[in-house]
Every structure is written in structure tokens, then in C-alpha cells.
């Protein structure tokens, strides 16, 4: 019984390691301008979904 528990624990650790490695193998990259544009867009959508006003004008001219 103890041996089964040890084998399952090791198997779970290896599976978790493999899953994390696959997720972080090829991370997406983008330019700083693209990252800033996406952050502004997501912030605007977040505020609109919650009915909040923003204190900024349209940032698309940046």
C-alpha cells in the first residue's frame, strides 16, 4: 500500500512538471507598444463591463 502511494505521488509530480514545462515552453512575445495598447484596451473593457467611467480620453492616438 505504501509503495502504491509513493508511486502515485511521484507520478503526479512528474505529470505536473510536464504540464508546467509545456505551458512555458514557447511564451508569446510582443513589442512594448503592442503590450501598452492591449493593456489600455483590456482596462477599458474591464471598466465598461462594470459600469465605471474612465478619466481618460480615447488613447488610440498614443
From TrEMBL:
Report the superkingdom from the record: Archaea
| Record region (Disordered) | 23-62
Q: What is this protein called?
A: Uncharacterized protein
**Organism expressing this protein natively:** Haloferax sulfurifontis
Amino acid at each position: 500500500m505504501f509503495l502504491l502511494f509513493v508511486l502515485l505521488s511521484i507520478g503526479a509530480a512528474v505529470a505536473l512538471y510536464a504540464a508546467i514545462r509545456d505551458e512555458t515552453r514557447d511564451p508569446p512575445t510582443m513589442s512594448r507598444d503592442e503590450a501598452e495598447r492591449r493593456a489600455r484596451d483590456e482596462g477599458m473593457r474591464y471598466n465598461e463591463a462594470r459600469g465605471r467611467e474612465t478619466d481618460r480620453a480615447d488613447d488610440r492616438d498614443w
